[in-house]
């Protein structure tokens, strides 16, 4: 891997901005690179968040953990640019399939499409 930690976070955030995404969720240490000698990670778990908060031009980027899942479970529409409508419908349908049916029976899971 040629980049990791804060550099990776900035690269991915800028790549998504260039692709017209309005949101980018940063989790813990993006690459999990270990220190070459010491038994510790090179970057703190929240290094990416720190770097994004200091990056010029990215101060408007909101990091909203678990917002997508909550919106999909509640069948609410995401903010414009969050995700393409077709992809969003797949998520909403998936979370809807996990909800118990009206007669308290769990619905059958949505079958995966066969790519072959």
From TrEMBL:
InterPro entries: Rossmann-like_a/b/a_fold, Sulfurylase_cat_dom. Transmembrane segments: none annotated. Keywords: ATP-binding, Nucleotide-binding, Transferase. The keyword ATP-binding applies. Residues 1-67 form the Sulphate adenylyltransferase catalytic domain. Pathway: Sulfur metabolism. One of its GO terms (molecular function) is ATP binding. This is ATP sulfurylase 1. It comes from Forsythia ovata.
């Amino acid at each position: 891997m040629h980049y990791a930690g804060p550099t990776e976070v900035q690269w991915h955030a800028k790549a998504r901005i260039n692709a017209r995404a309005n949101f980018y969720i940063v989790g813990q240490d993006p690459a999990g690179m270990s220190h070459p000698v010491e038994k510790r990670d090179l970057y703190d778990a929240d290094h990416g968040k720190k770097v994004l908060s200091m990056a010029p031009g990215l101060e408007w980027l909101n990091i909203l953990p678990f917002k997508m899942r909550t919106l999909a479970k509640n069948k609410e529409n995401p903010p414009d640019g969050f995700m393409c409508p077709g992809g969003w419908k797949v998520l909403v349908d998936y979370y809807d399939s996990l909800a118990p049916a009206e007669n308290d029976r769990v619905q059958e899971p949505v079958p995966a499409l066969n790519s072959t």
